[in-house]
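Sequence design from tokenized structure. All designs in this work follow the same two-part layout: the structure record, then the generated sequence. An example of the structure record is given first.
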């Protein structure tokens, strides 16, 4: 009885190790698909949409591998948007962590968001949005895909600045700043230093209400 229990534990451990290795392999394949999709979409820009076959070929994987993780290309694009939101949030959090005051945190956040209008980043973002159907007639449409996680980053500095409703105030500021970013993305322009300073001041004003 005891020997069977020991054998059972060993079998379970071996199975768990095999599952862990398989999980790592699967995660690697998903990352290859996401990176390949991003590169292929960036090359196509907003003039054409790549097929699943193009993405699979760029990743060096099979159609079976693609559909193991994504039921459609739309699901892959949704994953790209989530991945982009997480990366941007991580980048902004790192910038804010190095800031010496709540005011400086807000400035670091605003400058980091508006930096996404830079030519290389903007081209990639627009390509992904084009594949998501969010390009419309060349105007920003709908809620920005990163609005939720980015607004969360503003909550603590807004609270420290005396906001009576930091959750609502940070969400309002995030939507406003992301709206400015979207305008620049679709126009192919970048915010000036003066515009950035004005947006920072407006965000601080909202935080202090």
């Amino acid at each position: 009885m005891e020997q069977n229990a020991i054998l059972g534990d060993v079998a379970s451990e071996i199975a768990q190790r095999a599952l862990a290795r398989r999980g790592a392999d699967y995660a690697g394949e998903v990352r290859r698909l996401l990176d390949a999709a991003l590169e292929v979409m960036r090359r196509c820009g907003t003039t054409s949409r790549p097929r699943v076959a193009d993405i699979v070929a760029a990743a060096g994987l099979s159609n079976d591998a693609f559909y193991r993780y994504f039921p459609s290309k739309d699901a892959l694009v949704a994953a790209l948007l989530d991945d982009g939101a997480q990366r941007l949030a991580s980048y902004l959090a790192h910038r804010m962590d190095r800031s010496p005051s709540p005011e400086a945190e807000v400035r670091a956040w605003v400058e980091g968001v508006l930096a996404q209008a830079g030519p290389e980043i903007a081209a990639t973002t627009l390509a992904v949005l084009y594949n998501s159907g969010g390009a419309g007639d060349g105007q920003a449409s709908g809620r920005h895909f990163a609005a939720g996680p980015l607004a969360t980053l503003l909550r603590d500095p807004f609270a420290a600045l005396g906001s009576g409703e930091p959750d609502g105030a940070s969400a309002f500021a995030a939507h406003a700043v992301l709206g400015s970013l979207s305008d620049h993305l679709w126009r192919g322009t970048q915010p000036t230093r003066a515009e950035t300073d004005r947006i920072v001041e407006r965000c601080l004003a909202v935080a202090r209400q």
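The two ends are 70 Å apart (CA to CA). We note this feature because it recurs in several other targets discussed in the main text.
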